[in-house]
Every structure is written in structure tokens, then in C-alpha cells.
Amino acid sequence: MRPAMRVPSSKEKAALRNAAQKLKPVVHIGKRGITPALIDEFDRSLSTHRLVKVSFKAGRDEIQPLIETLEAKASCFCVGGVGKRRSFFRSLDS
What we know:
There is one protein chain. The protein is an alpha+beta fold. The chain has helices at about 10-20, 35-50, 60-75, and strands at about 25-30, 50-55, 75-80, 85-90. It has a domain at about 30-90: Translation Initiation Factor IF3 (2-Layer Sandwich). Strands 1-2-4-3 form a four-stranded mixed beta sheet, sandwiched between helices. Helix 2 (about 35-50) links the parallel strand 1 (about 25-30) and strand 2.
């Protein structure tokens, strides 16, 4: 289990959202939802890049519970997104 992380400030989140605009999604969450293999891949991507964009196939009203699950299982923060894509960040502290 990772130690508790510091929540990014609003200025930090804005800078991360700006940086994430140039990224392509590296993780795609499809109809099977969040699986252990997906969590492992997402965790590896965050460890390598710290800022990762995720694409969701689910309807917009179904995305928020998936975001909360990813945040909890991978010790990261959703810093924003548009439509069916969200960007996640993990600080060096974790």
C-alpha cells in the first residue's frame, strides 16, 4: 500500500491539464471495465510517465465511478478531462 498523497493545488492541476492536452490515451477502458490486468498496466504507465491520459468507452454518467476506482486502486488523482477522456497524475511522493 502506498502512503497518502498530497492533493495537487488548483494551479498544479491547471498545469497538468495543459500538459495532458498533448498526450494520446495510453489506457483504454472498454466494455469489460476495470480488470486486474488493466490496473497493472495503468499502474506501470503512471510509474513511468506520472501523467497518463485514459479513454473510456462507458457512457458519460458511468465514467465517474470508474474514475474513483482508478484513483483508489492506483493511488493517483484525476486532474481533469473532456468528453470521455480523463488525465491522471501520480506525484513522486507515492
